[in-house]
Amino acid sequence: MIPNLVEKESVQNAIAANVAVLNLSRMIGPAVAGTLMLYMEPAMLILLNGLSTPLVLWSIWLLSLTGDAAGRHMAKETSSGLGEAFRYIRSHPAVCSLLLLAVVPMVFIFPYTSLLPVFARDLLKVGPESFGALLSMSAAGALTGSLWLSFGRPIRRPGRWLLGSILMCGLIWLCFLFSFAFWQALASMFAVGLFSQIYRTMSRITLQMQVDDRLRGRLLSIALMDRGFIPLGVLLFGAVAEWANALIAGSVMAAGCIVATFFVGFFQREIRKM
Questions:
Q1: N or C: at which end does the chain have fewer Cβ atoms within 10 angstroms?
Q2: How far apart are CA 26 and CA 205, in angstroms?
Q3: Superfamily holding 78-273
Q4: Distance CA 237, CA 272 (A)
Q5: DSSP string covering the chain, please?
Q6: 171 or 14: which carries more pLDDT confidence?
Q7: Is 108 within 8 Å of 256 (Cβ atoms)?
Q8: What are φ and ψ of residue 62, in 5° steps?
Q9: So what's the pLDDT on residue 65?
């Protein structure tokens, strides 16, 4: 809905601002819930969360489309269904390239959120408190990245930013694996969160700018399926850590991320042309 709520030149900032709010809520929400659990039962918290839904629906009801967007939505849609969406992907190499590139970080980088306890225990030799600090630094980096995209100027050549941010994730993950001090691990996690969020937000922005209005919802639905590759990565690299050790598993993640990104960038030239 966001591209239909703002003018075209503000779409990038609006999408990035939406992501920033999501990241901020993911940081504030658990903290508020943890505090409220001191005074009420978990069942009451769930009920309270459910009662907030009407407020969200009311806020959506108040939204109004821009003039241009409203006119576009008055046009009669000639066809519908996922079949048309897949035909659109096949006939538009740029969109297909974005969807292929999205698989790389989901398989090789984002599984770190589930495997981080193993790396913290086996490589850094730290306990739960330090593990929480690592996650917090990753979330702070993600929030910083989304805020930067929210208030910064629209980025030119987004394809290069997409490739570069994934490569940086792989390189910085290597720095985390070979951290000689805990502060270096914290800094690495902040940078991983930063560049992974830059990629994630830029990917959504670029995809929405590439597709037609009437197909945007269906294309985003397909694009959001990329999160299904995260459990696959957790399964693969968890098995490697079990079979070998955490350092080898993490190194394979980093190497796979870097090599796969170069591979996609080389063969999918449409990304470099964006």
A1: N
A2: 21
A3: MFS general substrate transporter like domains (1.20.1250.20)
A4: 30
A5: -GGGTS-GGGHHHHHHHHHHHHHHHHHHHHHHHHHHTTTS-HHHHHHHHHHTHHHHHHHHHT----HHHHHHHHSPP---SHHHHHHHHHH-HHHHHHHHHHHHHHHHTTTHHHHHHHHIIIII---HHHHHHHHHHHHHHHHHHHHHHHHSPPPS-HHHHHHHHHHHHHHHHHHHHT-SSHHHHHHHHHHHHHHHHHHHHHHHHHHHHHS-GGGHHHHHHHHGGGGGHHHHHHHHHHHHHHHS-HHHHHHHHHHHHHHHHHHHHHH-HHHHH-
A6: 171
A7: yes
A8: -80, -10
A9: 61
Query: Which amino acid is residue 170, in one-letter code?
Result: G
Q: Report how far residue 212's alpha carbon sits from residue 227's, in angstroms, rounded to the nearest whole number.
A: 23
Look-up: residue for tokens 């006119």? 71
Angle between helices 158-177 and 246-267 (to 10 degrees): 160
| Residue extents of the structural domains in the chain | 78-273
Does 111 have pLDDT greater than 80? yes
**Which pLDDT score is estimated for 75?**
46
More confident residue, 168 or 202: 168
